[in-house]
Design brief:
399 residues; alpha/beta; N-utilizing Substance Protein B Homolog, Chain A; four-stranded antiparallel sheet; 46% helix
Length: 399
């Protein structure tokens, strides 16, 4: 298995089988050395991320609808087009020849000449074609609805800056759990930028991969020893294991709950108890918590840089988010606090959900002024194009 073959497998499986890019890459790149695995990830994630623009170029220059191509040919052309349009340091002849070889390996000899001809047109034409596209969702490769949401919420310039920022690699940040600082400190206590994640240190429970935006959400909870905190949607456990006091960490998915338990053990978070349950139908004894964290499922529009396939499967979930906030209010003692966080940049799932919950807002902007929401400073909003981290909306509410 070469790096290009692994990347091809990811592209094929993501778009033909609705698979998750990171999971396919994990298996497809098994056995590759560090350098080839990094190349496979760069090519695979870049192709998945840029697929709308790539398909446009393939159709314009190849003069055939992408949907009518055989799946192996479609995946190979997408991967080849990405290399020709965006991948620096890759020779044109290598991109063309290796892509043709992928089609041949798929036993589609009848498509080899077509693939070769399209790639040669792409080799000379794709970069000028992409550069000539007007600024917006097609050029930056996003669904139109995402651009519409961001233009509504951030304005034209902000939306374009955000689209561009989330086409760049996300910063690599870890949370220090114990031991020496692993990298450069940041403006979030305990968060460090690193060149790469030391998997040995993760396995030993010394660090945990977690963006600054995510760590900020955990810090805002503000739990203390002697308090009881409920984390309603806890897996994989990054935020739950940040918290002090007695913590009950809930997840509805059995496999994710098992993963959560393993991570709690790895991080030696003896104060965290894992419960496999539906947050909307918890056992009656789980009540009267001092604090509750609702890190709710969402469209994920703040983490698209790290999850290239998410932009093609994302959907807003405001109804579920309101239900979860109301369930949290029922389980939190009177006078307690609820932190609502979502890794998305979408007012429909952010401030509108808080308004629909009917809960009183406890302002956060003065505590964390650098992350104050630009229009609603009582909330926090981390923005990839402004803060260089993943996008998180955070609100603290009173019961």
């Amino acid at each position: 298995m070469t790096a290009r073959q692994a990347a091809y497998e990811v592209v094929l499986r993501v778009f033909e089988d609705d698979a998750y890019a990171d999971r396919v890459l994990r298996s497809a790149a098994r056995g590759l050395d560090t350098r080839d695995r990094a190349l496979a990830q760069r090519l695979a994630y870049g192709t998945v991320q840029r697929v709308r623009t790539l398909d446009h170029a393939i159709e314009k220059l190849g003069r055939r609808p992408v949907r009518k191509l055989d799946p192996p040919v479609r995946a190979a052309l997408r991967l080849g087009a990405y290399q020709l349009a965006y991948a620096e340091g890759i020779a044109t002849h290598a991109a063309v020849n290796e892509t043709v070889e992928l089609v041949r390996r798929a036993r589609l000899e009848r498509a080899v000449a077509f693939t070769n001809a399209v790639l040669r047109r792409l080799a000379t034409g794709i970069r000028p074609l992409v550069e000539a596209l007007p600024d917006g969702a097609l050029k930056e490769s996003y669904p139109d609805w995402v651009e519409d949401v961001w233009r509504r919420d951030l304005g034209d310039a902000g939306a374009l800056a955000l689209m561009r920022a989330q086409n760049e690699p996300a910063e690599t940040v870890v949370r220090l759990v114990q031991g020496d600082p692993p990298g450069e400190p940041t403006n979030i206590p305990g968060a460090y930028v690193v060149d790469r994640v030391d998997e040995g240190a993760v396995a030993e429970g010394r660090i945990w991969p977690q963006s600054r935006g995510s760590q900020l959400a955990g810090l805002v909870v503000g739990s203390h020893d002697g308090e009881r905190t409920l984390d309603l949607c806890a897996a994989p456990g990054g935020k739950a294991t940040q918290l002090d006091g007695d913590v009950v960490a809930v997840d509805i998915n059995e496999a994710r709950a098992r993963e959560l338990e393993e991570n709690v053990r790895t991080l030696r978070a003896a104060n965290v108890t894992v419960v496999h349950a539906d947050a909307l139908a918890l056992p009656p004894e789980l009540r009267d918590f001092d604090r509750t964290l609702v890190d709710a499922p969402c469209s994920g529009l703040g983490v698209l840089a790290a999850r290239p396939d998410l932009r093609w499967r994302a959907r807003p979930l405001p109804e579920l988010q309101v239900e979860l906030l109301r369930a949290a209010a029922e389980r939190t003692r009177r006078g307690g606090t609820i932190v609502y966080s979502v890794c998305t940049i979408n007012a429909d799932e952010n401030e509108d959900v808080v308004a629909a919950s009917g809960l009183e807002v406890e302002p956060l902007g003065e505590e964390w002024p650098q992350f104050a929401h630009p229009r609603r400073p009582e909330f926090l909003l981390t923005l990839p194009h402004v803060h260089g981290t993943s996008g998180f909306f955070i609100a603290r509410l009173k019961t």
